Amino acid sequence: MERLYPRFVVIHHTAGFDVPALTINRYHAERGFGIILRSPQSLVAEYIRRGFKQVAGGVMVSIGYHYLIRANGTVEKGRPDFMQGAHCKAQNMNFGSIGVALTGNFDSRDNPRGAKGHTVPTSEQMAALRKLVLHLMDIYQIPREQVLGHKNIKNSATSCPGDRFDFKV
Ligand SMILES: [Zn+2]
């Protein structure tokens, strides 16, 4: 089992519409991000119940983020915290961080008028993000300066989560 020791929280936008984690899971499956969750059995069963694909020895989890925050503020579980992510290769962050994504596309150049999803995070998303980040900081003892947007990770070469996203813990 690939283990993850989270020292950072990396925040993303999905750059698209407000869709459920299972839909993002399908997109990320197409990009080959999947890894097999094999244990604990109860968690494997939970993912299968949620609609993730059962495979020999477990369940395929392809969504690259650990958490997805929907426009209405609902937090959907992506990968379990203890699995490596598939959301930020730079600085080996897939092995050193929890990846949190908000649905929407908050980049004013890529999505000026909302053709690719909502253009600014909803207040419900920001409230849910704050609560989730404070929780993650607490359980993993992550200092606030290690809660960063994707684009703030050195060598990440992305505008994610967009210039219309502004968050400070
Ligand atoms: Zn990103």
Tell me the layout of helices and strands:
Blueprint: E1 8-13, H1 21-30, E2 35-37, H2 41-50, E3 53-55, E4 58-61, E5 67-69, E6 75-77, H3 93-96, E7 97-102, H4 123-140, E8 147-149
Parallel strand pairs: 1-7, 1-8, 5-7
Antiparallel strand pairs: 2-4, 3-4, 5-6
The site of zinc ion has 4 residues, from loops.
What does this 3D model show about the protein?
The mean pLDDT is 96. The protein has 169 residues and is α/β, with parallel strands linked by helices. The chain has a domain at 8-20 and 64-152: Peptidoglycan recognition protein-like (Lysozyme-like, 3-Layer(aba) Sandwich). It has 4 helices and 8 strands; from the N terminus they run βαβαββββαβαβ. The strands form 2 sheets. The chain has a 5-stranded mixed β-sheet with strand order 6-5-7-1-8. The chain has a 3-stranded antiparallel β-sheet with strand order 2-4-3, covered by helices on one side. It has helices at 21-30, 41-50, 93-96, 123-140; strands at residues 8-13, 35-37, 53-55, 58-61, 67-69, 75-77, 97-102, 147-149. 38% of the residues are buried.
